[in-house]
Design goal:
InterPro entries: ACCD_DCysDesulf, TrpB-like_PALP, TrpB-like_PALP_sf
Order of helices and strands: HEEHEHEHEHEHEHEHEHHE
Cofactor: pyridoxal 5'-phosphate
Number of helices: 10
Number of strands: 10
Oligomer: single chain
CATH class of the largest domain: Alpha Beta
Helix content: 25-40%
Shape: globular
Structural class: alpha/beta
Protein name: Pyridoxal-phosphate dependent enzyme
Number of domains: 2
Distance between the termini: 53 Å
Strand order of the largest sheet: 1-2-10-7-8-9
Family: Belongs to the ACC deaminase/D-cysteine desulfhydrase family.
Largest sheet: 6 strands, mixed
Organism: Micromonospora craniellae
Length: 348
């Protein structure tokens, strides 16, 4: 880090006013919650956990995004929504529950093949009564997903429904997700006004959440660095997505995208391992270390990989770890042997 202390900068009214004015359905309930984890980092670096729980449908970063995405859909008169993501998607969990809370019908387009046994999030899709459609691809950016959503929406409209396609991989959906996320940093700046971190670490997939964080750091003229650990794509691809999402958010509110160049952005795929949804031994170790040192429970798909990257980084400076949720997937069976303590022989 440089010699200057990090700063949150100042709120940018053009950004905050725009975000506050976006329509919502009212599912986002709780601000981000912060607590210190002083014994977590093996190098002694100060770490603050910031959990983006949202308080709805097992929470996570998708709650405040879906609040606005479905707010837009309902404002447009939709009675049905269609979205698409991976087979165990947190986005689809929140969309399914939020659609029902808003009185909307819901279709989910999922990548892959129907499993013999449903995963934890898939159980929740079924409980919410979402209609599931499977497409034979594992590529998060395969256009077959958009084509399938469009076909479902067209069929629903032909049957008299007013249908909104919610695609978070492209604008305007990705831009709304990034704009929704900008409020996280404003909340962090209020909660940690006297102790901004040197770096924020979070996991990245489609780049919407990281793009929102980058956009608001730039808009505030903050001097906090951003590190994004990829859980989906190669680092170069994710970096381009994050920059694109951030630029679109700034452009939406009339701020110059050149502000992005003032923020230190690092994107790493060093903990990606075998790819999206494939746990690694480092992620499992980070998951356990985090639970035991801070009480935060991380999923193995996203957050544990980002925490593994943080714990492997011994550069001087303090960290804020943005925990983006995914709580149902915490209960997935561990792929590696546990290091549980041995009980005394003969103990009751």
């Amino acid at each position: 880090m440089g010699g200057d202390a990090p700063s949150w900068g100042r709120p940018e009214p053009r950004l905050t006013d725009t975000v506050r004015a976006l329509p919502r359905i009212g599912i986002h309930r709780w601000p981000v919650t912060c607590w210190p984890a002083p014994t977590l980092h093996p190098g002694g670096n100060a770490v603050v956990i910031a959990e983006e729980h949202g308080g709805f449908a097992f929470g996570g970063n998708k709650v405040r995004q879906v609040d606005i995405l479905l707010g837009q859909a309902r404002q447009a008169g939709a009675d049905t929504v269609v979205t698409s993501a991976g087979p165990h998607s947190n986005l689809c969990r929140v969309v399914a529950a939020a659609a029902r809370a808003a009185g909307l019908d819901v279709h989910l387009v999922l990548r892959g093949e129907p499993p013999a046994e449903p995963s934890r999030n898939q159980v929740l899709y079924e409980l919410a009564g979402a209609r599931l459609h499977w497409v034979r691809t594992t590529d998060a950016f395969d256009p077959v997903q958009a084509e399938t959503m469009t076909a479902i929406a067209d069929e629903a409209r032909a049957n008299g429904s007013t249908t909104a396609v919610v695609d978070v991989r492209t604008a305007p959906g990705s831009t709304l997700c990034a704009l929704a996320t900008t409020a996280v940093v404003d909340e962090l700046a209020d909660a940690l006004a006297d102790r901004p971190p040197d770096r924020i670490m979070l996991a990245g997939g489609a780049g919407n959440t990281a793009g929102g964080v980058l956009a608001v750091l730039a808009a505030r003229r903050a001097t906090v660095s951003l590190v994004v650990a990829s859980a989906l794509a190669p680092a170069a691809q994710l970096r381009a997505l994050v920059r694109n999402r951030a630029a679109a958010a700034l452009d939406r509110v009339g701020l110059p995208t050149a502000l992005l160049d003032e923020v230190s952005l690092e994107v790493t795929d060093g903990q990606l391992g075998g790819g999206h949804g494939v746990p690694t031994e480092a992620a499992v170790a980070a998951q356990r270390a985090t639970a035991r040192a801070s009480g935060a429970f991380l999923d193995l798909t996203y957050n544990s990989k980002a925490m593994a990257a943080l714990l492997a980084d011994y550069r001087p400076g303090s960290w804020l770890f943005l925990h983006t949720g995914g709580s149902p997937n915490v209960f997935a069976p561990h792929p590696f042997p546990a290091d549980a303590p041995q009980s005394d022989e003969g103990a009751p």
